[in-house]
Design a protein that fits this description.
heterodimer; A: 1032 residues; alpha/beta; Dimethylsulfoxide Reductase, domain 2; Barwin-like endoglucanases; seven-stranded mixed beta sheet; six-stranded mixed beta sheet; 33 helices; 19% strand; B: 471 residues; mainly alpha; 17 helices; 2 strands
Chain lengths: 1032, 471
């Protein structure tokens, strides 16, 4: 048996081959000559053991069976068996704990160029609101646009954005967007709807186009969204060339018509104003919301911010307005007048200035009413102030004021030499000069009634809803045999049109747009159209007698035709910078047309009587087009802190007079219509005046969320009340003679801040410049306090923030930016109203001080203060929140069990708790808006501002790979990036040159609740106003 | 004391007032005290039990909802991170104070009158702490990770944060519960043995036999039992004070106006004893009636309890007074605002309920008539616990509702689930108490027998007690 043919492997208790000593390995060479025991010529060996240790191998093989072969296998004993039994039972139970969902992962077989999975890509693009463009820089993650920032290269917005821009991503992923093309089966039976395709429509348009062309397109009408797109203009020209008798109109319910008409009155030409507030020492805002973060205002807002930080540069802003706008809240002095009284005030101001300013003396302006003593005092003081600052002052007028008030302001500005410095006048860049409903409806109605109109193409946003009640836009559309509506949602207009085409979102489209100064940008898509959507240009091009082109080809063809040689290189640059060079239009300096203006002034101003009602844009839904944008609906209104609804806002005095309170429903009757709306008294409103924000009351869009309704608590958003139902085409801005009475009902309003005052506490500081110079209020609210503990020495980066409450307008763009960046869930009206469970990591606390009619407003952005001695940390029983060695107060979501003790002990109450599984029922489409750099928090976990730690870490990685320290200004938090006034700075205190350190050392610096000695890393700069002592 | 039974009753050597009315032998005591265990459940008991079972059902439903959907089903908000849940927790823990105080501290002070009520009070403690324990476990956002609160060796190398009063709470409450349970069970052993011996059928003999852990009543057994009982009493005594002290730290250690107060530990302990004694009275009054225990739980017992209620009530009132005084005296704006808001704000009704029930009401016990009137003490004892619940609501919810930043002054309204949990725990507590009264020796029979002997002995030879002659 010595040479067993079936040698068995060496068993376990023998020395294994792995433990062979190195010197033994060298042995084979010396033994190579020994005669093999099997007799073959070559020394084949079966195993290393045989080779290295033949003697032992032999002895092993001497046995037929390996050692222990006949032993009864030593299995588990009783104890072990029972142990295993128990363990396997327990483990079997564990498998039930988490069922992992099946997730197919599709890898890129070919990696797209520039794309590194996990790294964000930024694309420059743009979008336009009412034809005014904003440059954007959009972050895409693996092909999904997730975050919108302003394009820093853009000359107007310079990187800042408003709340609407910030919410673009969620409006892209809105599950209620129109998704399918459809048409009514026949024009006679509008209810009978069939799905259709864009292809069918296009074919139909091409066929019918030939027919229409025969009579020059006499029956073609286009009702367009205001647009400044150069390629769109070209398309229109081409369409008009083919159909010379076709007509283009534009419709926007909130529009610039009054300002443009005012320019026509004052200068004889249509001009569009924009403001350079950085150069304005004295600003008079007549019912003008200059700081509302609309595309046309972003530049002015930034300029205003620049004048509010250094006390030596402090400008002076007078706001004369009826409601409390964010401009009024930020103004140094405020006078409340009813909207109809503004004109008289403006006329009086003109007359007052006529005495001192050359160029105005020829104009005689009668106020048409007796000004009150206060008004007269104001007129005199403002006139003196304005006259003292020629070419460095500004009078601005709000969109809802009649053209003559605009004309008066233009005249004053022109005479003071402000035109070209603080007031920039640009040619009207939208293709249609005017867009208010009165400019197109009568003409179109006449044609429709005469049966002339064969086809009506509507790309304007929802004219059926967003139009005054006295004009039957829906009836008009129904009378047209072929009406095609291109819109974002299957809305009121879509319901009456014969064809509905879902519109592409701006992030899905190729196009171009121009900012107010003419700066043109390419709109490039970030994502392939999610649904069956088309763009306005696609629709217009179907009317051309030309082969179909892709939007991309069309756009390139247009611009290459304009540029000619070297287009390709330029195109690349345009795409990467987001700007098309050489498109800016120089600001105009027209001469004042005194005669025209005198004529306009000769007509006595209309007098308001009784209760006046103003239709104002809403800070959240604008004219209603953002009604289904949850981030905006949940953004608290900057002034009222109202979410999800609109309300009839009035002065507290008026509410008292009516015997109503917050949430009481009143019936407002005007123009023969009655609307019931809840009351929301707001300080600083003119008496006998109600402001009703437009854009709500969409019955088709109960802008709610299907969030976990528990125990009969349906979580639905409010739908608000439709202010358009009271509006007539004659008075789009405001109307007088409204009858108001209590309706004896109540309606819940979800406010995120109930308290108006600071209750006499030193929470936020405000002083006038003179007071501040005498004795700053903040001196005791900063600096180290005595403590028994040894100070912690921080080394390396020390992240810190500065918040300038003097720059902050409260516009809340930062709040939406934070929502977008940090995957903050939307909780809905019920949760806010009933439980105050809004999840915003940053809120803007708004305090009123002083008289309720002449309130001083302080905005205090409030987010985690990142205290060095954080009260939240020591109370957490599981160490789920700790301070990093760079001073960040960090939340460890995995560790958090949700005792909420940290929130209780947080004096700033900035922590937010996932009371329910907010993210659990998010539609797949909305999930695409999630930022993959930020954990999506589960139910039961505390969360709060992180100072955008994901941005810090991403920058750190970049700096580390480049072998350098992080540079000043390299990390920009989401709120900071969005802020149009640069009221937030972020950086490290370890860098002596950092802006944040400078803010921390500023004379206006204070810590909120300094007496608690939490040593916050967020420093605040107090508000210092610059009122006119004459008016004090 | 001109008690007509004085001559025949077993007398306390210090207080010549009967602690056991009538004369009994061991056998007749066993008979009378265990009688209700053998008797068929009465109709009244069955109705009560059904009601409490319903309450427990409500608890079950509320717990399932809480676990299934999350804390969002409660009325908690930001800033009210803690609300009803924690109010209920502290209320129940407070109620759980009387038992151990009676058993341990009064035992160490050799208060004879405790013997008839200690078992009962201890059971109440156990059940109350069980109810209390539910709340911290449920009120976390992710209760399935509650084990993070315990220091266990984990691969994350993470420990609980020992700086946090919540971590102290975990130890304080779990220690208190364990010791109370052991103490209670230890006391029960001889009585279980007595029940076993008196059992009329095999099943009962088996169950009580197992529960009595082989007790034979030998001298050795009694010796070990006595020393163990004394040791546990010594161990439990500091716990009576520590538990509520540590619970009060949850608030005192924070910096919230209305919470950040050094007076909290003694004031909480006094409040806890106050509510605990009230709860004992609430249950003793019907129990002695319906379980036929009037001869061992006499008016004298109840009067003593009421005296303690009055004393602790005044301690609590002193606490209120100092809180308000310091809030004013410190000149701290948020602190004073807080106290002003309590008395005048949205929740003022609850504040004034607290003031009435805890400060005004116990003053009736200055009158002996009130102290010994069954209806009065029954009503007062219930109202005291209403007052103590209100006190916790005032301290926890109102402080959170009105803290530092006026922008975060928010209101609070509970949900049905909140109410369900309170009603449900009351149901579960009642259910356990009813089961205990029915199936367990509700009176420490062996101790009563011992007392009976002692008293008889003392009565026979009064000169044995030197103090007796001076009395």
């Amino acid at each position: 048996m010595s040479d067993s043919r079936f040698p068995l492997p060496v068993l376990g208790d023998e020395k294994s081959s792995a433990s062979v000593e190195p010197e033994v390995v060298s042995a084979p060479q010396s033994e190579a000559t020994t005669v093999p025991d099997h007799g073959y010529h070559k020394s084949y060996w079966r195993s290393l053991e045989q080779k290295l240790n033949p003697e032992k191998y032999k002895s092993l093989n001497a046995r037929e069976f390996p050692p222990n072969y006949f032993d009864v296998p030593k299995g588990v004993d009783r104890r072990e068996f029972i142990g295993l039994l128990g363990a396997s039972m327990a483990l079997a139970g564990l498998t039930a704990c988490s069922e992992k969902p099946v997730e197919p992962i599709l890898a890129y077989t070919k990696n797209p160029e520039h794309m590194v999975v996990g790294d964000p890509l930024h694309y420059a693009t743009a979008w336009s609101l009412r034809g005014v463009g904003t440059g954007l820089l959009v972050t895409a993650r693996e092909g999904r646009p997730v975050k919108v920032e302003g394009n820093p290269e853009h000359p107007v917005n310079k990187g800042s954005t408003g709340a609407y821009d910030q919410a673009l991503t969620i409006s892209l992923y809105d599950p209620k967007r129109g998704q399918h093309v459809r048409r009514t089966a026949s024009a006679t039976k509008p209810g009978d709807i069939v799905t259709a395709s864009w292809r069918t429509l296009r074919e139909q348009l091409v066929t019918q186009g030939a027919e229409w062309a025969k009579d020059g397109g006499e029956g073609l009408r286009f009702l367009m969204e205001p647009s400044s797109s150069p390629s769109g203009g070209d398309l229109r020209e081409k369409v008009l060339k083919r159909f010379p008798k076709a007509k283009f109109y534009a419709h926007a319910q909130l529009n610039h018509d009054n300002a443009i008409q005012g320019a026509e009155l004052a200068f004889g030409t249509a001009l569009h104003p924009s403001y350079a507030l950085e150069d304005a020492d004295v600003v008079v805002a007549l019912d003008a919301d200059l700081l509302e973060p609309l595309p046309e205002n972003l530049g002015a807002t930034r300029g205003w911010g620049e004048r509010r930080s250094e006390l030596s540069k402090l400008n002076r802003v007078y706001a004369i307005e009826s409601r409390l706008s964010i401009t009024g809240a930020s103004a140094d002095q405020r006078l409340r007048l009813k909207p109809s009284e503004i004109e008289g005030f403006a006329r009086a101001l003109l007359a007052e200035l006529g005495g001192s300013v050359a160029g105005l003396n020829g104009l005689s302006a009668q106020p048409g009413r007796t000004l009150s003593d206060t008004e007269q005092k104001w007129v005199k003081a403002i006139a003196r102030d304005l006259a003292g600052k020629p070419s460095r002052s500004l009078v601005a007028v709000g969109e809802t004021q009649p053209p003559v008030v605009h004309a008066i302001a233009y005249a004053i500005n022109s005479a003071l030499g402000n035109v070209g410095t603080t007031l920039q006048l640009h040619p009207v860049l939208t293709h249609e000069k005017y867009s208010s409903v009165g400019t197109w409806y009568p003409e179109l109605k006449e044609d429709v009634d005469a049966g002339k109109v064969k086809a009506l193409v509507i790309t304007a946003w929802n004219p059926v809803y967003a139009s005054p009640f006295d004009l039957d836009v829906a009836g008009l559309i129904k009378k047209v045999p072929l009406s095609i509506y291109l819109g974002s949602h299957d809305d009121e207009t879509a319901k009456v049109a014969t064809w509905y085409l879902p519109a592409q979102h701006t992030l899905e489209t190729w196009g171009d747009t121009r900012a107010v100064d003419g700066t043109a940008s390419i709109i490039q898509p970030l994502i392939r159209p999610l649904f069956d959507g088309q763009s306005e240009h696609d629709l217009l091009s179907a009317f051309l007698d030309a082969p179909e082109q892709t939007a991309y080809d069309r756009l390139r063809a247009f611009w290459s035709g304009k540029v000619g040689l070297g287009f390709d290189a330029k195109w690349e640059t345009w795409l990467s910078t987001g700007l098309i060079d050489g498109q800016t239009v120089p600001a105009q300096r027209p001469a004042l047309n005194a005669r025209g203006l005198s004529q306009a002034l000769a007509t006595a101003p209309a007098q308001g009587s009784g209760v006046e009602l103003a239709f104002v844009p809403d800070y959240r839904v604008f004219d209603g087009r953002f009604a289904n944008v949850t981030w905006l609906q949940e953004m608290p209104d900057p002034i009222t802190k109202l979410t999800w609804d609109n309300a009839a806002m009035m002065s507290p005095g008026m509410a008292k007079k009516l015997g109503v309170d917050r949430e009481s429903v009143i019936a407002i009757s005007v123009n023969g219509q009655t609307l019931e709306a809840p009351v929301l008294p707001v300080p600083g409103y003119a008496d006998d005046f109600i402001a009703l924000p437009v854009g709500y009351g969409r019955e088709l869009f109960p802008s709610g969320l299907p969030l976990g309704g528990v125990l009969g608590n349906p979580v639905n958003g409010g739908t608000g009340f439709n202010a358009y139902a009271l509006q007539t085409s004659a008075a789009l801005g405001f109307v007088s003679g409204a009858q108001v009475k209590a309706a004896g009902k109540t309606y819940d309003l979800a406010l995120t801040q109930d308290h108006w005052t600071m209750e006499g506490r030193e929470v936020s500081f405000s002083q006038t410049l003179a007071e501040f110079k005498k004795e700053p209020a903040v001196e005791e609210s900063r600096g180290p306090l005595p403590t028994l503990l040894a100070p912690v020495v921080y080394e390396g980066y020390q992240w810190a923030m500065g918040v300038d409450t003097n720059r902050c307008t409260g516009c809340s763009a930062c709040v939406v930016a934070c929502v977008a960046e940090n995957n903050i869930p939307v909780v809905g009206k019920h949760q806010i109203h009933r439980f105050n469970r809004e999840m915003h990591w940053m809120r803007i606390d708004r305090y009123f001080a002083g008289d309720e009619n002449e309130p001083e407003v302080i905005n205090q952005p409030m987010m985690c203060q990142h205290c060095e001695a954080a009260p939240c940390e020591y109370v957490c029983p599981v160490n789920a929140t700790t301070t990093s060695d760079e001073g960040l107060n960090e939340m460890v979501y995995n560790r958090c069990i949700g005792t909420r003790y940290c929130s209780n002990n947080c004096p700033y109450k900035v922590r937010r708790f996932n009371y329910l599984h907010w993210n659990g029922e998010k539609p797949a489409l909305e999930q695409m808006a999630m930022n993959p750099d930020v954990t999506v928090r589960a139910r039961g976990v505390m969360e709060k501002c992180t100072y955008c730690v994901q941005r810090i870490e991403r920058t750190r990685i970049k700096a580390r790979t480049e072998g350098r320290p992080i540079k000043e200004g390299e990390i920009v938090t989401a709120c900071q990036q969005a802020c149009p006034t640069h009221a937030i700075s972020f950086g490290t205190l370890s860098d002596q040159n950092s802006e944040t350190l400078a803010w921390h050392k500023d004379e206006r610096r204070y810590d909120v609740l300094h007496e608690l000695n939490t040593r916050p890393r967020t420093a605040y700069l107090m508000r210092v106003t610059n009122p006119n002592p004459e008016l004090a | 004391m001109a008690d007509p039974h004085a001559a025949t009753a077993a007398m306390d050597p210090l207080e010549p007032v009967p602690l056991i009315i009538g004369q009994y032998t061991d056998a007749t005591l066993t008979q009378s005290l265990f009688g209700h265990v053998w008797a068929k459940p009465t109709k009244g008991w069955l109705i009560m039990f059904a009601l409490s079972l319903m309450g427990t059902g409500i608890l079950g439903i509320s717990v399932v909802i809480t676990l299934g959907w999350g804390i969002g089903t409660w009325g908690n908000t930001i800033p009210m991170g803690w609300a009803w849940g924690i109010v209920n927790f502290v209320w129940w823990v407070g109620i759980g104070h009387a038992g151990t105080l009676i058993s341990a501290i009064l035992f160490l002070f050799q208060q004879k009158w405790r013997t008839a009520i200690n078992r009962f009070a201890e059971a109440m403690t156990i059940f109350a702490v069980m109810c209390a324990g539910l709340f911290p476990a449920l009120h976390t956002g992710r209760p399935w990770f509650d084990y993070f609160l315990f220091p266990y060796p984990s691969d994350t190398l993470l420990w609980p944060q020992f700086k946090s009063p919540l971590t102290w709470d975990v130890f304080a409450v779990s220690t208190y519960f364990t010791v109370s349970l052991l103490f209670w069970y230890l006391g029960l052993i001889p009585d279980f043995a007595a029940l076993r011996d008196a059992s009329t059928n095999k099943a009962r003999r088996l169950v009580y036999g197992m529960l009595s852990l082989g007790w034979r009543g030998s001298g050795r057994h009694w010796n070990d039992y006595k020393s163990a009982y004394l040791l546990l009493a010594g161990l439990a005594t500091p716990l009576v004070l520590s538990v509520h002290t540590i619970v009060s730290f949850d608030f005192a250690v924070s910096l919230l106006p209305g919470w950040h107060t050094t007076i909290f530990p003694p004031y909480f302990v006094a409040g806890a004893v106050f509510s605990g004694f009230a709860m004992v009275v609430t249950w003793l009054v019907p129990a002695r009636q319906f379980c036929g225990l009037k001869h061992v739980i006499t008016l004298r017992h109840l009067e003593n309890m009421n005296k303690i209620i009055m004393l602790t009530g005044m301690l609590v009132a002193y606490g209120y007074m100092m809180e308000h005084f310091i809030a004013w005296y410190s000149g701290n704006v948020p602190e004073w605002d807080q106290f002003y808001d309590r008395a005048t704000g949205n929740f003022r009704a609850i504040y004034w309920t607290m003031m009435f029930c805890n400060v005004v009401l116990p003053q009736v016990y200055w009158f002996k008539k009130a102290r010994t009137s069954i209806p009065i003490m029954f009503v007062v004892s219930i109202l005291v616990n209403v007052g103590m619940w209100s006190e916790r609501f005032v301290i926890f919810v109102i402080s959170l509702h009105h803290s530092f930043l006026p922008s975060m002054f928010k209101d609070y309204v509970p949900t049905l689930v909140d109410v369900g949990l309170l009603v449900g725990t009351i149901g579960m507590f009642s259910m356990l108490m009813l089961l205990f009264l029915k199936f367990f020796p509700a009176i420490a029979v062996s101790e009563v027998k011992e007392l009976n002997h002692e008293l008889a002995h003392a009565h026979v030879r009064p000169e044995a007690n030197p103090r007796q002659s001076g009395a």
